[in-house]
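hey m, so remember when u said the C-alpha cells were messed up on ur end? i reran from scratch. heres the input so u can diff it against urs
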Amino acid sequence: MLMILLASWLRVGNLAALRLGHSLVRRGDCWWVVFEARQTKNRRPINLPLPAELTPMIGRYLGVWRPVLLPRPGMPDAGVCSDPGFLWLGRYGGMFGPKKVNKRINEVTHRELGQALNPHLFRKLMPTELAIADPAHVGIAQPLLGHASYDTTQTYYNLAQAIDAARRVQTTLAMLRQTPSKG
C-alpha cells in the first residue's frame, strides 16, 4: 500500500478502489493505475505507470497474500465465494474501504516510523521534495497531483516554506540556548 501510495500520490478513495484488470492493469513488465475522469475527485483521468521495481512486490502480494484474504465458504458475506477483484481485501474478502486503508496506513507508519502519517500527507511529500531538491521543476507537481490550478498545489501541498521556517526557528533557538545569560 505504502509503496503504491509513494509512487502514485493517489487519494485514499482511489487507492482503496484499485481493482485488478480495471484500475490496476498490467502492461508488459509494469503495473499501471488507470481511473476514468468520473472515478476521481477532480474529474481528471489518471493513467500512471508504477515503477518497475514494484512489479515483484505486487506479484508477491497477488500470489501469496491476497489469496489468503479471498472469500471462502463459511466466511461472513462470502456469497458465492467469487473474487471481487479489489486489490486490497478485508478480513472476509470484501473491499478494504478508504477508512480502513487510512487506519492501516496510520498504524503501519506509527509502528515503523514512530509517527502516524495519514495517506493524504503522502500527496504533500512530492511537491515539498521537489521544492526543496529541484525548485526549478516544482511546477510538474500540479499535473501529477491532478490539480486544476498551480495555486492549489503551492498553497496546500508544498510544505517546503514551512519546513524552511521551522529550520530557521530551530537554529535561532539553538543559538539562544548557547548564548550565556546576562544576569
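this time it looks ok to me. The longest helix spans residues 160-178. if urs says something different then somethings off w ur setup not the seq
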